[in-house]
Amino acid sequence: MIIFKYAEQLARYIQQQKTAGKQIGFVPTMGALHNGHLALINQSKQATAVTVCSIFVNPTQFNNPSDYQLYPKTIEQDIAKLEAAGCDALFLPAIAEMYPRGTAGLEHYDLGYLETLLEGAFRPGHFQGVCQVMFRLLTMVQPHQLFMGQKDYQQCMVVSRLLTLMQSPIQLVTCPTLREPDGLAMSSRNMRLSAEDRQQATAIYQCLTHIKEQLNQGVSWGVIKEQAEKMLTNAGFRIDYVELANANTLEPASDAQAAASRMPRVALIAAFLHEVRLIDNMLV
Ligand code: AMP
């Protein structure tokens, strides 16, 4: 695996690969890699000839300074995992490479209502930061296909919107969420959980499963939501949201009309265990 610190060198490498007729797959990450990330690498390897991964903890997408400071960093292990997974190139830029003129006063993207609900409402500025870094990464890498995880459901929709705004031909491939044996969605932030909180954390998955079962049995969303919130608070969570949304638009889809129309729906949860914020979702 070739490691690039500078966009110019990475772009030259990618141009060579493209000239040789190769398709480029790209997996952007913030490091502290787990099997969920490696599943994206595998999907990219199956679909394209050259897989490029990036590791960059993007400061502009953190609305909470201590979350940024405490974000896990395991670069040596990450490199070993990517080598073992057969990743072809790793882009490992410094902040100055991504934001040569600093991070103040950066461009603003029109994300419409997507930015006003769920993660957008609870993490002001987060999706602007995601777009700022993704625009730069996509311009530098110019892949044919981009692989991202359903774990970050709303982020996939935001990036899809960014690709439209960029009039980009890049194909976004959304990959299923990898889970621990007890159902907890794999996440770099899980490393920050205490042993006790790690055990409690599985309540999010249990909640999502419960929501799905109860909806299938025709129980009303108001009742289910109350049960779900109780399950989470009993496990020690501080809840940001437990919502049911139209899977295509993320607009609220909890009423009887939505249920009757059989539109695809997704249940989404964001909640804190002490200082660690976890998110997960499930199509229902
Ligand atoms: P992150 O490093 O958290 O920014 O994640 C990098 C990419 O990996 C994003 O597209 C995530 O959605 C994806 N990802 C994170 N966790 C998982 C998981 N458990 N299963 C599948 N993909 C994931």
TrEMBL record:
EC number: 6.3.2.1
Stored SUPFAM superfamilies: Nucleotidylyl transferase
Subunit (UniProt): Homodimer.
Listed GO biological process terms: pantothenate biosynthetic process
Protein name per its UniProtKB record: Pantothenate synthetase
Pathway listed: Cofactor biosynthesis; (R)-pantothenate biosynthesis; (R)-pantothenate from (R)-pantoate and beta-alanine: step 1/1
Compartments it resides in: Cytoplasm
Lineage: Bacteria, Pseudomonadati, Bacteroidota, Chitinophagia, Chitinophagales
Other facts noted in the record for this chain: The reaction proceeds by a bi uni uni bi ping pong mechanism.
Enzyme superclass (EC): ligase
Binding residues annotated for beta-alanine, in chain numbering: 61
Task of the protein: Catalyzes the condensation of pantoate with beta-alanine in an ATP-dependent reaction via a pantoyl-adenylate intermediate.
Annotated residues for binding of ATP: 30-37, 149-152, 178, 186-189
A molecular function GO annotation: ATP binding
Coiled-coil zones: none
Pfam families: Pantoate_ligase
Similarity comment: family membership: Belongs to the pantothenate synthetase family.
Active-site positions on this chain: 37
Keywords, ordered alphabetically: ATP-binding, Cytoplasm, Ligase, Nucleotide-binding, Pantothenate biosynthesis
GO CC field: cytosol
PANTHER family: CYTIDYLATE KINASE/PANTOATE-BETA-ALANINE LIGASE, PANTOATE--BETA-ALANINE LIGASE
Residues that hold (R)-pantoate according to the record: 61, 155
Reaction catalysis annotation: (R)-pantoate + beta-alanine + ATP = (R)-pantothenate + AMP + diphosphate + H(+)
